[in-house]
Design a protein that fits this description.
seven-stranded mixed β-sheet, three-stranded mixed β-sheet
């Protein structure tokens, strides 16, 4: 296991402020460990009072800022993620399996062992200067939240926005944090040139449910207040009701869309719960721990939307699912959008790519001395 690892499943149990209940081995490891009780309840006693887990930071030596994709069911072909791993700790996060690429666990490692890209802004400038670069909106935060708590001090997202602002490059932002308001000065300038769209992910309006599903994200009320503040400042902000989890928060879909409309949302969308790779087992453990009375029913509904499995990765299906339940959810969304007057703005306005000007290289001083 990587140096400093949490020991995978040996550290099972709820940790204050963390979403995952364990640190399972990632799919690339040939061995895994399981905690074993000797019959004297020593295991339960050992996990009864687990200490809080600190967050650690490691520098990322990546030589690129932009990540490219050709997925036909995504609305962007390029993205930037200043951070790998996310302290928000959302148990359902589809990005968790990416930590396995680093030799780390998608469980508690994903929430506590963050990788940051200190040179992300400089690398971005270099890529935007390449001959033949054709601008299209960059998705900021497509994998992990660009405004998770560490952004308060590292300010890497702000550095990226400063680059995009200088060269008139459009950007879309997805976040669960009110921290986006710290960059309202930059976003305001970009909005005036139709260069930015912000989208707040709102999973529930229930603070208690949010606390166990996404323990270190901003409260739902804070996200809606931030949405209202941005729209009031002329910065377009919408909502992504995601993920919708059958039998957990799906009944809130219309209420979330209504609250977002009242906060001035200019666009809206939804995504059905996705459980790729290691997340399926982790989510099931979380469900049995927090909702034992309905865990079986929730899992049955999830499988109903995924052809009898916990996940269907096919393009065109992975975001919305299939079957009667998935169809009914899609119909509810369409009807709510029409009733709330959000249907015309479902995708938001097209951002301007025509004003892009490649960043000017800064001359290196005294490089020959």
């Amino acid at each position: 296991m990587p140096d400093g690892s949490l020991g995978h499943d040996l550290l099972s149990g709820a940790r204050k402020g963390r979403g995952a209940l364990s640190n399972p081995a990632n799919r690339y490891e040939s061995r895994s460990r399981d905690a074993f009780d000797d019959g004297w309840s020593t295991l339960a006693e050992a996990f009864a009072e687990l200490p809080p887990l600190a967050t650690t930071l490691t520098r990322d030596a990546s030589r690129r800022a932009l990540a490219w994709n050709d997925s036909p069911d995504l609305g962007f072909d390029r993205s930037i993620n200043p951070y790998r791993g996310c302290e928000h700790g959302c148990i359902y996060c589809y990005a968790r399996p990416t930590h396995a690429w680093l030799g780390l666990s998608p469980g508690l490692d994903f929430e506590t062992r963050l990788i940051f890209k200190p040179d992300v802004a400089a690398l971005l400038e270099k890529e935007l200067r390449k001959p033949g670069y054709v601008p299209r909106p960059i998705a900021l935060g497509s994998n992990t939240d660009p405004y998770q708590p560490v952004e308060r001090t590292l300010k890497l997202t702000r550095a990226v926005l400063e680059v995009l602002d200088r060269c008139n490059h459009p950007v879309t932002i997805v976040t669960k944090s009110a921290g986006v308001l710290r960059d309202a000065d930059i976003l305001g300038r970009m909005a005036a040139r139709n260069l930015v769209q912000v989208c707040f992910s709102v999973t529930t309006l229930d603070d208690k449910l949010a606390r166990i599903m996404e323990p270190r994200a901003a409260t739902p009320a804070r996200r809606l207040a931030a949405m209202h503040a941005l729209n009031a400042a002329g910065i377009p902000a919408g909502v992504l009701a995601a993920p919708m989890i059958p039998g957990v928060n799906d009944a809130e879909l219309e209420r979330i869309l209504t609250a977002a409309r009242d906060a001035g949302a200019n666009c809206a969308g939804y995504v059905l719960l996705r459980l790729p790779l290691e997340i399926a087992e982790m989510f099931e453990a979380w469900l049995h721990a927090h909702m034992p009375d309905r865990a079986a029913r929730v899992l049955a509904l999830i499988r109903e939307t995924r052809g009898g499995r916990t996940y269907d990765a096919r393009f065109g299906h992975r975001q919305v699912g299939t079957g009667p339940y998935a169809d009914a959810l899609a119909q509810r969304f369409r009807l709510a959008m029409k009733r709330l007057g959000l249907d015309a703005a479902e995708r938001g306005s097209e951002l301007d790519c025509s004003a892009f000007a490649p960043p000017v290289a800064t001359p290196r001083q005294l490089e020959l001395l």
